[in-house]
Amino acid sequence: MEPKVVLVSHGHLDHCGAVPNLMYQNPDVFMTPPTAEFTFLLGRDTLKLAESTLSGVPPFDPDDLQKLGRRTQRIDYNKPFKSHGYRICFYNAGHIPGASGIFLESEAGESLFYTGDFNLQETRLVPGAAEFPEADTLILESTYFGEEHVPRKETEERFIESILDTVDRGGTALIPSFAIGRTQEILMLLDAHGIQAYVDGMGRDVYKILKKYPEYLKDPKRLDRAFEHAILVKDHQRDSILKEPSVIVTTAGMLNGGPVLYYLSRLYKDPRSKVLLTGYQVEGTNGRLALEHGFIETTADILTLKPRVEKYDFSAHSGDSELKKVVKDFCKKGAERVFVIHGDRTEAFAEWILEEIGVDAYAPANGHTFSF
After folding, report:
1. Which of 1, 80, 100, 298 makes the best surface tag, with the fewest CB within 10 Å?
2. Which InterPro entries does the record associate with it (predicted)?
3. CA–CA separation, 10 vs 22, rounded Å?
4. What is the CA radius of gyration of the chain?
């Protein structure tokens, strides 16, 4: 089937990165303004990375990205619109700026709500998700089904304590962070504790985008202050930074590319330094290797890490109890079926919904189709 409409929930690569590949089918594309900017930023970065790899084969070409720009319509939260016989509305999903839960209603009155990645809890960067509308069908992410987050305040205290300890011992606190959302939140946290940090990588470009959309942020002034107090790094400055104890926030969050590999190539023999991971590390990434085995792989070498590697849960996803609460709330309001996606335990979650709530639940695999 060829999609006539593409609705993009948010600007993380696993949710928007393939959209340029669909442009040969000429779909109408809708997303919030920040999501649109993040999608193009990541698209340009994807093309740049393809040029620098040995294969040099990009997943799409610059014309696809330009076509996506022409076909994209930018829609703010709570602004209903129509397309191909459906009424559609984006709702704030928390998670990152511009992240959306997506509501669809057919002309016959059948309705569906897709949560996208969501977070009911506010963070320093964004407010928590808005109240979601009623729908006949719910499609929700399940990233943290079966797992609760450590209270954010406790995580922040441990994180700050570790950074101060590192600098006091004469080391560098290297903080790999996802460019969209995480870099900005970490800098706001550091600034709140009077810690000046260097910031390197794509997170700087993301901040320039966010300045244009203050209405999507929890506290734009605090974000501005965090970046005003941080020191933006230029490529030629990286060596000089490492000559003294410092705090560096940089991409990439899973150590698979970006400036963080340069810093690690200089710091990997220093036991006074630390690598403070701020998010989930996917299996097979350098971040997972560093956590579990104490080494990373580069194009030229395998580096055994003498700096201590620590992981902190700064997740922008709701945890187990909130996932279950969302399902219960939808089902109480009349949802007839639930589709569970985007997680490692989707089948277990679907079974829980059926057994505990008594509503039909599915964990679809790629290629499955459903009709009701």
Report:
1. 1
2. Beta_Casp, MBL, Metallo-B-lactamas, RibonucZ/Hydroxyglut_hydro, RMMBL
3. 17
4. 21
